[in-house]
Amino acid sequence: xxxxxxxPSAGRTTFQRWAERLNDWLSYTRSRLAFFQTGDTPxxxxxxxxxxxxxxxxxxxxxxWREVVLxxxxxxxxxxxxQQATLANTAYGVEFNVISGSTGITIDSTYDTRxxxxxxxxxxxxxxxxxxxxxxxxxxxxxxxxxDGVDAAHSERETVKDNASVHIMPISDLAQITSGSYLEVKWxxxxxxxxxxxxSATAFAPASHAAEVFITRVHE
Length: 220
Description:
7-stranded antiparallel sheet
């Protein structure tokens, strides 16, 4: 481990002058983390170091260096346009067109169904889609996540019957995502009379969107 700058050497200075210089140095460095160096070992819990290569602090725990998650890598993404499936029983990605409060997460410039991640970690994915039924027949919608084109191992499903009714279907999941990967929110219906609905503002209420997704990195 190395501190930024070494403490002043006593050299041939008087003890009083050296003590003053040492006091100044301690005042300057006391709030700074030591830098992680190749060969540092996490054999003792609770050692905090700054890893300049990775750009974040690490702490020793259970004989491993663990990342200390800093604020960042979060986003709110929205789909503000109604989206309809062309075919039943066919997977589609939610097409996002608005992103805000974003750090490290972007909507892909070529594929608007893809959310790109600049840093890996465990992410909390929450939010909802808004769906509308346009007939009184029984219809089912499917909702799931995909990472780099690979579907998650589970999906959520909801059955809708009421004609001209609007329903909210929640999104709540954890996703382990690596740096450079992309996330998609996938959906499908067994009847095209069920779709993702976006509605304009009224005189008394703001607009509602086809989808709103909130993403936060919670672990390395």
